[in-house]
Predict the 3D structure of the following.
Amino acid sequence: MKLADYIVSFLISKEVTHVFGYPGGMVTHLMDSLDKYSNQITVCTNYHEQACAFSACGYAQYSHKLGVAYATSGPGATNLMTGIANAYFDSIPTLFITGQVNTYEQKGDTLVRQKGFQEMDVVSVVKPITKYATMIKKVENIKYELEKAYYYAMSGRNGPVVLDIPMDIFRAEINPDELIGFDIIEEETIDYHRIAEILKQHILKAKKPLILAGAGISKANKADEFKKLIEILKIPVVTSMIAIDCFATDSPYNFGFIGDYGHRYANFATAKSDLIISIGSRLDCRQTGSDKKAFAENATLIRIDIDENEVSNKIKSDEIQIICDIEKLLPVLLNTEFEVHCEKWLETCIMLKTELKQLDCENGNIIVENLSHLIDDGSVITTDVGQNQVWVAQSFQTKNKQRILFSGGHGSMGYSLPAAIGAYYASKKPVISFNGDGGLQMNIQELQLIAREQIPIKVVVLNNNSLGMIRHFQEMYFESNYVQTREEKGYTPPDFIKIADAYGIRSIHINSIDQIKTLKGVLSDILPILINIDLGNTTYVYPKLAMGRPIHDQDPLMNRELFGKLCGID
């Protein structure tokens, strides 16, 4: 059996249905093997290796299966790396296979920079942004390395792995029966009933408990169990920005997402709570603000995380840290008897939401909210990075079965479109891809894949004819010197309607909020479409936290009398 055939059969055994790649000389044997098994696994040929990586991320984010992308040696491998970093920082289980020059062409220990054409040391470059990376130098190691890579990608805190495979290794003949596998590492035994009892005692003592739901809940595929738990506890919930899809917007216990661009009422509830149970959120500085001491000053903080390294970044000196697997903890919590009475606190959170909900409402927010009402439950939504991402987080009215996929920690512009492709192949459900005019251009070539395969992705361009997030910074800190962000200073977007036409994709231009309601039928169409929404060139995302302020005191500063009144509520 050819070794490349063995790799493909391994992926099929792990229920991988789609892989994403771009042709190149050093992966031709893998490409040929994938074609042999085309009745069991589908290759999606992207038009840039970065897009391959992002598509693999979108596939894994939705399916909770292994996302797989491949590329050839040298520039093919380096083009994957932004996607590899994205998978690392957002804990996405992915396998990246890079072709490498034949073993006899490699520079080895010589001091030359390069011996083989397009040769480079992929493993050394990607090690800081992977859970595991290695070059396969011996054909007899293929089973061991595939199983080890799969284990690391899928176990514990998920993440990317890289196998760098020389061309002569790909084409080698092997006997699968003679291969040695990888022995799975035994996990440490954890007493989940004891953890449940600790949480129960803290909840019973608290008068103003709050649960902070992080993306770890969705990554563990336990959003449904989490919703059931909240229905039992009846405790207010706030989320991180990239976890907004783990809880429906209209739930009576949903009080928005926290942080720099978070909902004011979410940040106020956090500031006034006396117990915060953080589940699967790393509590980075965009959530807590730059001054950690000002974060939830009067609250006991319990942090539940699968990664003990993550809690080394202490938020409070006396915080309680629980290292465990949410996937195993939530079923135990559902079988724990709770008697929680925090009706008064719930009323306070409702009052905060009522007082502060309409304080900030930009055009982008209005458009996103109106669009969200037209999008069916069960749909998948992808966002890019920039103002469009924040508007979706702030204003999209999430339904129970919807998924919203972000590029969170790495914040990669150009993410939404290829991630939407991966999410579609994982779900075969309607996908809405939100983009800014800047981010869309970074992987705009993937419109050809959408057109070629007639993938029913709705590409929404929130077009402010500028790089809006940076333009806003320039207004605040650089005396409105819009260098490189607006037309008069070196940035222009293309005519997206003409571009869509060139790709053979239907398009619609929207220039008023009133026209949004006409899109209902379009959004449920089975064909792809590009919707260009003209916002003008001066847009904002509010609220926004200024450096040094506590998270519940965001810009634009609210009326000081109202602020004092809300701060004084017990």
User: Anything to note?
Assistant: The first strand starts at residue 18 and ends at 21. The radius of gyration is 25 Å. The first helix runs from residue 3 to 13.
